[in-house]
Amino acid sequence: MKKEKIESERRHIVIIGGGFGGIATAKALKHTDADVTIIDRLNHHLFQPLLYQVATAELSPGDISAPIRAIISKNPRIKVILGEVAEISPEMKSLRMRNGQSISFDQLVMATGAQYNYFGHGEWAEFAPGMKSISDALKVREKLLMSMEEAEQLHDSSKRKSLLTYVIIGGGPTGVEMAGAIAEIAGNGAKHGYHSIKPEDARIYLIEAGPRILNAFPESLAAKAKKMLEKMGVRVLLNTPVTNIEKNKVHLKVGSIETPNIIWAAGIKASSLLDSLKVAQDRSGRVLVEADLSIPQYPDIFIIGDSAHREDKNGMPLPALAPVATQQGKFVGKLLAKDGKRSSGSKFKYTDKGTMATIGRAKAVADIKGLKFSGFFAWFLWSFIHVLGLIGFRNRTRVFVEWIWNYFTFKRGVRLITDRSGCVYCTTYEINHKELKELQEMPV
Ligand SMILES: Cc1cc2nc3c(=O)[nH]c(=O)nc-3n(C[C@H](O)[C@H](O)[C@H](O)COP(=O)(O)OP(=O)(O)OC[C@H]3O[C@@H](n4cnc5c(N)ncnc54)[C@H](O)[C@@H]3O)c2cc1C
User: Fold this and answer.
1) Sorting pLDDT into bands at 50, 70 and 90, what band is 431?
2) Which atom of ligand 1 is nearest to the CA of 113?
3) Read out DSSP for 24-61?
């Protein structure tokens, strides 16, 4: 019988990040004899590819997230810490938490993901939020719903026009998916109960600085996606860099667009925690890693997912995608389950199973190992793969039922506005404020 090591003899493996990479690492460490700690500033794992469906009121936050503790609760060797790591001391093999606590490790896996990149214009974030978290998606949802509520009540045509204008910056999969989903709600106002909003009232712009959308897809599929979007009423502006963003206004080289509904989906940079390692990083802040995903000068520190820069056989950096993070997490977890020594000569190899993006109801594009699909079949594939990617049977079942229901009824599930501070002309707010005052003044 294998003798269990006493605590002082056991390695301590720390994983920072409970996203795709971190969870895959922890799961692959199931049978390790080491002690494992997983740290995340959030208490939940989030399926980011479906965030836009929370923002467009198709799904609830709980459908696409699950508590990290619940995901790995079966393994008593894995400890979960809710907190933010502020700094790493690679030589000391320790890290400092935001609350001042210090944690030492024998081996470290950094799976801290990425954040939105405003390319030197951090001040734009306030007016053009990106979506990386549930709270970001809920802010966007409140804004979209609030502007439809206000437009429904307003008669002033220029105010209505700005409220029913949507600008999505960035023509990658997130921008495309967001533009398509907004086109479906705003373009079908009556179906969603907004009887004064006509399809022709909505103006949806997808703005891309480069010459095409969906850069990572074959050109023919990107062209099909553009056509589908345009058919849905989205105005796709290519070669159109944004020059400035201020409150309720986007400036382009060719003019400006007035709207409170500005969404940023134009690029990411790696987590800033990586800077504390003081090792070589690429232009997006990703750390350059060895074939076993460790850092050249620190063989016991591994970087995976959106935080890592590793090239494929053609010399191109692996894309910031969930399957890359998951496969890297599995690889590092298995490596560490043995001992994780570089001398083992293990090399990570990415298996590309394909890329896909949905454009709307029964519309998507997919490139699976060189086979190109578009339309209903691509959308069916997209739905199937995304449901499978969700963690937990309950989430999968709920989302599956939700999608079937939405497909046949055209309904959007979760159109709740819980914070009306995002109003622009605040007509609805004033009405309620007055009502509230009257209520307060009523004799008891
Ligand atoms: C809106 C959107 C849509 C997307 N759509 C797709 C898609 O359709 N298909 C696809 O394949 N990919 C998609 N992606 C990309 C995919 O989600 C990422 O590639 C993937 O999440 C990367 O996994 P990761 O483990 O590297 O990081 P993440 O999954 O981002 O996890 C990082 C974790 O680290 C935690 N963390 C960060 N810093 C700290 C710190 N200092 N202390 C403690 N915890 C910390 C975070 O809270 C987070 O939980 C999308 C991303 C977004 C934002």
Assistant:
1) very low
2) 27
3) HHHHHTTT-SSEEEEEESSSEEE-GGGHHHHHTTSS-G
The pLDDT mean for the chain works out to: 88
Same domain for 255 and 126: yes
Pick from 296, 256, 253: nearest CA to 278: 296
Contacts of 119 (CB under 8 A, 6+ apart): 266, 267
pLDDT tens for residues 335-359? 999 877 777 789 999 998 889 999 9
Confidence band, pLDDT 50/70/90 cuts, at residue 31: confident
Name the closest-CA residue to atom 4, ligand 1: 49
The mean pLDDT of 41-56, rounded to a whole number, is 92
Distance CA 337, CA 60 (A): 36
Q: Residue 86 CA: which ligand 1 atom is closest?
A: 41
Choice from 64, 96, 112 to test ligand 1 binding pocket (greatest atom count within 8 A of CB): 112
Question: Tens digits of per-residue pLDDT, 303-336?
Answer: 999 999 999 988 999 999 999 999 999 999 999 9
Domain that holds residue 290: 8-41+83-117+268-344
- pTM, entire model: 0.89
Q: What is the pLDDT of residue 436?
A: 47
Residue with the smallest CA separation from ligand 1 atom 20 is 322
| 126 & 106 share domain | no
**Element spanning 352, H or E:** none
Atom of ligand 1 lying closest to residue 51 CA: 1
Same domain, 238 and 274: no
Domain with residue 278: its CATH number is 3.50.50.60
Over the stretch 168-184, which tens digit does the pLDDT of each residue have? 999 999 999 999 988 88
Instruction: Enumerate residues lining ligand 1, CB below 6 A.
Output: 16-22, 39-42, 48-49, 51-52, 84-85, 111-113, 131-132, 173-174, 271, 273, 305-307, 320-323, 325
d(CA 339, CA 33): 10
Are 171 and 206 in contact, with CB atoms under 8 Å apart? Answer: yes
Give domain status of residue 104, yes or no. Answer: yes
